[in-house]
Specification:
Layout lengths: L1 H29 L11 H9 L2 E6 L19 H6 L2 E9 L18 H7 L10 H17 L5 E3 L3 H13 L4 E8 L11 H6 L2 E4 L23 H12 L3 E2 L6 H10 L5 E5 L13 H9 L3 E4 L3 H4 L4 H15 L4 E3 L17 H9 L4 H19 L2
Parallel strand pairs: 1-2, 2-4, 3-4, 4-5, 5-6, 7-8, 8-9
C-alpha cells in the first residue's frame, strides 16, 4: 500500500508540474525575442515619447500569464506596453490553429489550440466550442481591465477612444486595448452567434485564419477559394454591426470577394508585402491599392516570414513600399506579437522602429501617422 501511495503522489506531482510549467515552457520556446535596445539617440527618444503608438495585432490573451505584471517570457504585457509608449494595443484572440502550421498549405483537420488550453486549464466548455474560447479570452481581458486600477482601458467605441486619448494627455502611463478575432470559426458556424461576440466586446474579425473555414478561403488553406455564400452573409452581418473587417490571412480570392461587396473601410491587421518579401500570404501591390481605396489600412508585421529580415530595417522596407504606392495615410503597425513567432524585439523596444523610420528618410509627421496616428484615426471613424 505504501508503494501504491508513493506512486500516486509521484504521478500526481508530475501531472501538477506539467500543468503548471507546460504553458511556460511552450511559450518560452516560440514567443522569443532576438534583441533589446541599448543606446538610443536623444533625438529619437524624444520623438518616440511624443508619439501616440498603436499596434493592430497581438495574440497575448492565448497564453497563461497575466497582462498586468511584466513577464520574463512573451512579447507583450502592460508594463512593457507602457515602457514602449504604446497608446493602444489590439488583442486579437486565437481560437484554432492547425498542427504543423506553415505559410503554404494547412488543412483544418487538427486543432493545435486544444492541447494548449488543456494545459492552461481553460473551462470545459472551451474544449469543443471556438466561440467559447473567444468569450473566455474576452473575460480574461475584462478581468485584467477591472483589476488594473484604470491603467488598462478597454476601447469598445469611438466615444471610449476619444475619452481615453483625452485622459492620456494628462496620464501618459496608461494603455488601451481593443479586442479582435482571428478567424470567423469563432462563430461556431452560426451567424446567430455574432451578437454574443459583439456583446463580449469584440470589434474586429477576420473571415479566416490559417485554414479554410465555412466562410471562406485562407491564404494558407487547401482550396484557394474565396467567400462562400455564408461568407458573403458574414460580411454583411459584420458591417451591420460595424465590426471592422480584417483581411489578414485571407486568400487572394477572399480579399477580392470582400472588396467587391464591402461598403465600409477594411484593414489587414498584420501582413507583409510581396515586393519586399515574396510570400503567398503577403500582399500584392494591387491588393494594397484596393485596400487603400476603401479608406483602409495595411498593418505591417515584424516577424521574419512577413518581412524577410530580422531587424527593424526589414519592417521599414515594407512600410516604405506601402507609402510609395498608396501614400503614408494607409500604413500602420501590426506586430503579431505573442503569435508563436520569434521577434526582433518586444513591445518595450518599439523605439527601434522609430529610429529605423528616421534612418529610412521619413519625417516626424509621417512617423507619427505610421506609428499610430493612422490607426487611431481609422478607429475614430469606424467604431460606433
Amino acid at each position: 500500500m505504501k508503494r501504491i501511495l508513493t506512486a500516486v503522489v509521484f504521478f500526481a506531482g508530475l501531472a501538477a508540474a506539467v500543468f503548471w510549467t507546460g504553458p511556460t515552457i511552450v511559450e518560452r520556446r516560440i514567443n522569443r525575442v532576438r534583441r533589446h535596445a541599448t543606446w538610443i539617440p536623444q533625438r529619437v527618444e524624444r520623438l518616440h515619447r511624443s508619439l501616440l503608438i498603436a499596434d493592430l495585432h497581438a495574440d497575448s490573451l492565448l497564453w497563461n500569464r497575466g497582462l498586468l505584471e511584466e513577464s520574463g517570457r512573451g512579447q507583450v504585457d502592460v508594463p512593457r506596453l507602457i515602457e514602449g509608449n504604446v497608446a493602444l494595443q489590439a488583442f486579437t484572440v486565437v481560437t484554432k490553429a492547425p498542427r504543423g502550421l506553415n505559410m503554404v498549405r494547412n488543412d483544418d483537420t487538427s486543432d493545435l489550440v486544444l492541447p494548449l488550453i488543456l494545459l492552461e486549464r481553460w473551462p470545459s466548455q472551451t474544449w469543443s466550442s471556438y466561440k467559447e474560447r473567444a468569450l473566455y479570452q474576452a473575460r480574461q481581458f475584462g478581468q485584467a481591465v477591472a483589476t488594473s486600477k484604470r491603467q488598462l482601458v478597454w476601447i469598445k467605441s469611438a466615444a471610449d477612444l476619444n475619452a481615453y486619448l483625452e485622459r492620456r494627455r494628462h496620464e501618459p502611463l496608461i494603455v488601451a486595448g481593443l479586442l479582435g478575432i482571428e478567424g470567423a470559426q469563432a462563430l461556431d458556424g452560426n451567424l446567430a452567434n455574432m451578437p454574443d461576440l459583439i456583446d463580449a466586446g469584440f470589434r474586429m474579425m477576420s473571415p479566416t485564419h490559417f485554414t479554410d473555414n465555412p466562410f471562406g478561403g485562407s491564404a494558407t488553406g487547401t482550396t484557394r477559394r474565396g467567400l462562400t455564400p455564408a461568407g458573403r452573409a458574414l460580411i454583411k452581418e459584420m458591417e451591420a454591426h460595424h465590426m471592422i473587417i480584417d483581411l489578414a490571412h485571407a486568400s487572394p480570392e477572399t480579399i477580392d470577394d470582400v472588396l467587391a461587396i464591402a461598403t465600409q473601410p477594411v484593414l489587414i491587421s498584420h501582413t507583409g508585402v510581396r515586393a519586399t518579401c515574396d510570400s503567398n500570404r503577403n500582399l500584392t501591390d494591387d491588393q494594397i491599392k484596393a485596400i487603400a481605396r476603401t479608406g483602409g489600412l495595411v498593418g505591417i508585421a515584424y516577424f521574419e516570414a512577413a518581412v524577410c529580415g530580422t531587424n527593424p530595417g526589414a519592417i521599414v522596407r515594407a512600410i516604405r513600399h506601402v507609402t510609395d504606392i498608396v501614400g503614408v495615410d494607409h500604413v500602420a503597425l501590426g506586430s503579431d506579437f505573442d503569435g508563436g513567432v520569434r521577434m526582433p524585439f518586444d513591445t518595450s523596444d518599439l523605439v527601434l522602429i522609430t529610429e529605423a523610420l528616421l534612418s529610412g528618410g521619413f519625417v516626424d509627421t509621417e512617423i507619427a501617422k505610421i506609428m499610430g496616428g493612422n490607426t487611431l484615426t481609422f478607429l475614430a471613424k469606424n467604431l460606433l
